[in-house]
Amino acid sequence: MTKLTPMMEQYRAIKEQYPDCILFFRLGDFYEMFFEDAEIAAQILEIVLTARDGGSGVKVPMCGVPFHAADTYISRLIAKGYRVAICEQVEDPALTKGLVKREVVRVITPGTVVDVSMLEAGENNYLVALAENESAIGLAVIDVSTGDFQATEVSGPEASSLVLSELYRLRPAECLIPAWTQRESILYEFTEKFQNSVVTEMDPTYYQYAWAEAKLREFFEVEDLVELGLESCPAAVIAAAVIVAFLESTCRAQLKHLSRIRTYQPREYLGLDVNTRRNLELTRNLKDGKREGSLLAVIDCCRTAMGRRLLQRWLEQPLVDVKAINERLDAVEEMYNSFSLRERIREILGDVHDIERLAGRIGSGVASPREVLALKNSLINLPAFKALLPEVRTHLLKKILELDTLEDVYRLLDSVLDENAPASIREGGIIKPGCNPEVDELRKLAFEGKEWLLEYEQGERERTGIKSLKLGFNRVFGYYIEVTKPNVHLVPSHYVRKQTLVNAERYITDDLKNYEEKVLSAREKLVLLEQELFQVLREEVACHVSRLQEVAGALAKLDVIACLAETAFRHDYVRPLVDDSDVIFIKNGRHPVVERFLGSESFVPNDTYLDDKERRLAIITGPNMGGKSTYMRQVALITILAQVGSFVPATEARIGVVDQVFTRVGASDDLVGGQSTFMVEMVEVAHILKNATRKSLVILDEIGRGTSTFDGMSIAQAVLEHICSHIGAKTLFATHYHELTGLDEVLAGVFNLSVSVKESAGTVIFLKKVIPGRADKSYGIQVAGLAGLPVGVIQRAGDILRSLESKGGVDKVEAINASNVVQLALFQEEHPLVEELKQLELDDMTPLEALQLLYRWREQLVAPSKKGKRNKRGGG
Questions:
Q1: What's the rounded Cα separation, in Å, for the pair 419 and 373?
Q2: What angle do CA 417, 419, 424 make, to 5 degrees?
Q3: Mean of pLDDT over the chain
Q4: What are the tens digits of pLDDT across the range 605-614?
Q5: CA dist 449 to 254, 452, 453, 454, 456, Å?
Q6: Among 7-21, 445-459, 787-801, whose mean pLDDT is lowest?
Q7: Contact 757, 767 (CB under 8 A)
Q8: CB neighbours of 201 closer than 8 A, spacing ≥ 6?
Q9: Which residues contact 411 (CB under 8 A, 6 or more apart)?
């Protein structure tokens, strides 16, 4: 067995404690990686893989990165789903004999990142924990960078779909589940659907309720879980405790910014399932999953990062409480109507840094001097916000502007922190002049010794008579006295030669050397003293983290309200009337995203009226590319925006609050799951029919198109009947089954809409206007022509269509039943082979006999046509 060097033994011992991490092992000015870690890191980070003597002459793989640039490399490893353990030297090498003691001070995982350089400014970075018991599923979620900690527990038949929707909304960077979870467990089903999330398996002992309760009481320093609002949520208690335990084992730093946990219920917000969030492209587009092209990207003009994050949360969690919605709308309207107020607020917000994340880094004990300075420069603006309080009248704006101005925290920072504080704690220059006498004295000695040097230089010239004598300094020799060669005979005996040049000699003296040591010692002491004073300052500010978080939350709300008002002003949105009625009325509604890309002049607006009586369900017919899908989506988006508390793209709108929005649009296979396009469609429809209520808004696009015509039409009609008779949800139903338009005569609440077109000289012009009534055709062949199908194919399709239409096409919807379904015959005329086929005893035939029979039949069927072809050629 190879005997490792002492240093490699130390590395091995620490690595064994963190086998699932890439170990960044501090050696001087570098973090080094060895063995398999080095091989992995070298490939991902694209750095040189070298080798080091590991003992007994054995070379071990090694690579490294400079410690001052480590964040860049760590972020690349985290982005690939790896965990990184930071192992530091916890002793001063200059004061230690032998091997320096090293310890892991922090484990960075995808869900525990707090360094702003590794995070998207306008995005939350969530860590989620899941737990389940016999009756419920618990979910806890935290953004460690901001301290936003929440927990929920759901039960009942829809529990799994609610948790899936929450996971899709949160898009966690990392998900914690129990190590013993069976593969068939619902928790594995969740994590497998979100493959961009790193799954971390936790110790099963964490999933005992008694342990979890004690852990939360200890961490939050409360006597009872009632104080946390978790007294009746055992699964949520376990999930929250798992997160706390995980953070304690990884962060190894202070967690003062985690001072509270908020409980919530998904049902408190507008229900948006996974498919609806995806299909409506609320925060990410369907094409590549990025922000561009989403509703969020279109309405976001926030001035702060914390505002952008809150806007996304509002958009993903629209409200269902009419009073709360109108409170937001009142604030947006006031900001909309007061240009000067809005501009002043947005101007001040432009000078505010990300207080939420700055507070998180201060609470974690990792904020740099420059970050604390950024906090100070943000706090100076708080009185300016409060000064606007007399100008506002709405309840929400008054509540926001009655904020804590944190003047005591500002004074503390201003009294200690230098205006040019550096990015690193190791550089000095952190403490303000006049703040600490010892710092001032050391700083004067270290950096203001020019006067002493000038006096010493002048004194040596006078003592030696060497008028050209001068003092100098370089990094190799430190301070020196330089004498030109012609004057070397005048040099005193106590001068010690240090360096010979072509035209001069350089010397040192005891006085000069003592001064140099004093200066260098002062600089070292100064840096250490400033570090100590800064850490004390940071800890004092950390005591006010909860106040900082309150202010950050208030400013984020103010930013979002100003953003919604600015968006409404720029793009001609109006305030909707939001109430508890069952009416959705939209006049000249526009799709907010499509309009932005087309331009308001090119977009064709449309009206909508739905209620729970005569106009519950609209059957929409018309051509592909006519605008049906855009129209339906815009109704859903306008409804969602209204319930967020935003103005909407229309000239008038009344939105009776809905409890859920469902969409079934598009087509996709789930090949891995073994589901066809049609199966996926039916699963989604089944989910809607099970969960929709009379207060829901349902968007259905082309139900039944993935199977045969009669099957698809039958399913579509049955779905429509079920919605009308058993659910009563307001529904927009687009279809190419024109036979279904007759349902308005037999089902109460059903009415027809169509997308208008104009035919001219054999071409079709899509007018994009939704009008009352039904369409008589789909113009599919014309659309196929626009898509570039060969002319011959288009012409042949036209011939076939005219032939089918001349025969009356398919029967009207009222006549659809089993007795009326006509199958095309296998053979159009009676053929001699048919009788032979009927008489066969298939069970008595061998495979060879069956094959021979098929060959004979083929000869009988094909031979006449071949003969005809030969005769034709021969006749030439």
A1: 7
A2: 70
A3: 87
A4: 999 999 998 9
A5: 40, 5, 6, 9, 11
A6: 787-801
A7: yes
A8: 176, 177, 178, 179, 181
A9: none
Give buried/exposed letters for 530-554 (b at 16+ CB in 10 A, else e).
Answer: bbebbeebbeebbebbeebbebbbb
Buried b (16+ CB within 10 A) or exposed e, 248-278: eebbbebbbbbeebebeebeebbbbbbbbbb
Packing angle of the helix pair 209-220, 234-250 (nearest 10 deg): 60
Encode 344-363 in three state secondary structure: HHHHHHCCCCCHHHHHHHHH
pLDDT beyond 50 at 810 = no
The tokens for 513 are 């050397």
- Which of 205, 218, 264, 216 has the alpha carbon at shortest distance from 243? 216
The full DSSP string for 75-109 is: HHHHHTT-EEEEEEE-S-GGG--SSPPEEEEEEE-
Task: Report the distance separating Cα 232 and Cα 238, nearest Å.
Answer: 12
Q: Could you give the CA distance from residue 643 to residue 428 in angstroms, rounded to a whole number?
A: 51
Q: At what angle do helices 407-416 and 369-379 cross, to 10 degrees?
A: 140
Residue whose structure tokens are 């982005």: 79
> Measured between alpha carbons, how far is 804 from 457 in angstroms, rounded to an integer?
110
Q: What amino acid is encoded at 188 in this protein?
A: Y
Locus of tokens 């961490």: 219
How far apart are alpha carbons 822 and 579 in whole angstroms? 51
Residues 6+ positions from 769 with CB-CB distance below 8 Å: 604, 606, 627, 755, 756
Residues recorded for the chain: 876
User: What residues contact 848, with CB distance under 8 A and at least 6 apart?
Assistant: none
**Residue 403: CB partners within 8 Å, gap ≥ 6?**
382, 385, 386, 550, 551, 554, 555
Beta-bridge mates of residue 483: 505
Q: Are 559 and 330 in contact (CB under 8 A)?
A: no
What single DSSP character describes residue 709? H
Q: Return the minimum-mean-pLDDT range out of 228-237, 271-280, 440-449.
A: 440-449
Taking the chain, what is the end-to-end CA distance rounded to the nearest angstrom? 91
The rounded radius of gyration (Å) of the Cα atoms in the chain is 38
Residue pLDDT, tens place only, 490-539: 999 999 999 999 999 999 999 999 888 888 888 888 989 999 999 999 99
- For the entire predicted model, the pTM comes to 0.84
Which ranges constitute the DSSP H helices of 135-261? 159-170, 186-193, 209-220, 234-250
Q: What is the pLDDT of residues 1-59, one digit of tens each?
A: 468 889 999 999 999 999 999 999 999 889 999 999 999 999 999 999 999 988 877 88
